[in-house]
Amino acid sequence: MPLAPQLLAILVCPKCKGALEYREAEACLICHTDGLRYAIRDDIPIMLIDEATPVER
Fold this sequence. Notes:
The protein has one helix at about 5-10, and strands at about 20-25, 30, 35-40, 45, 55. It is mostly beta strands. The radius of gyration is 10 Å and the shape is globular. The termini are far apart.
């Protein structure tokens, strides 16, 4: 189930407060500024900096 558009509209990167890219197929949110990937588990974005993983470039 995709995230609600209302939720996506207010979510920002917790580290830089920048925009996030939603990747539904990968179940994650990407911050291109910081190069971090925030997982989405059970339709809940895990917005903890310590839980984020680096984006492979």
